[in-house]
Give the backbone structure.
Amino acid sequence: MKLKFLGTGTSQGVPVIGCTCEVCISENPKDKRLRSSVMVTTDENRKILIDCGPDFRQQMLTNHEHTVDLALITHEHNDHVIGLDDMRPLIFKSGKDVPLYCYSRVAHEIKNRFPYAFADVRYPGAPAFELHEIENKPFQVLDTEITPIEVIHFKISVFGYKFKNLAYITDAGFISDTEKEKLKNLDVLILNCIRKFDPHPAHFILPDVIKLFEELKPKKLFLTHISHHLGVHDIEDKQLPSGIHLAYDGLEIIF
């Protein structure tokens, strides 16, 4: 299987509008971060998208991706769902509704934000989705077993997802001991890391991530959901402990 980072930035993206900090004016492509999302390609070459934010169209075009067989949604914040309308060309081409897998709470929010996609009589140009409400237990789809990981983002529950011996977690500020059991000794763990300093009420910062790396002991840990406060890629990546890396848009991981 393969995971590709379509975006590794926070809700504002990097560069941030109007900001002239060192990161935002950097010309290094690794410092240009679209909103966080990944594409998982299964052994059968099926495409599983995780989250569909406002940069979805640009991400698909940039990465020469042409299909989405299903989408896993971590939670309902706009930087993770507001791009769903841009799935229309894929839906028109395939003639099929795109399956979305998420919490029941998230499914309700998606219906509220895209009511035209669920109308009894739909406008001919509207997108169309199959909503599948999932719980915190493994499920099988596209010949792939997926294990949800329940984490806390401020005051709401968010799903991370585990495939084989890789787990992807974004928008987390707390992981319970029960859920940590699913994350021990992985080949690859991907965690959000919004900045280096100053505790955040909803996201891990770098000291939190380093502590989790030491506790969970993955072979490799990649940081995502990165803000301009973390620093420029080429400097910060070299200063991380061995085994921890900054993800960047376009990075591929084979697992």
Remarks:
- The radius of gyration is 18 Å.
- Helices lie at 56-62, 78-81, 88-94, 104-113, 177-180, 206-216, 233-239.
- The chain is about 20% helix and 25% strand.
- The domain at 2-254 is CATH 3.60.15.10 (Metallo-beta-lactamase; Chain A).
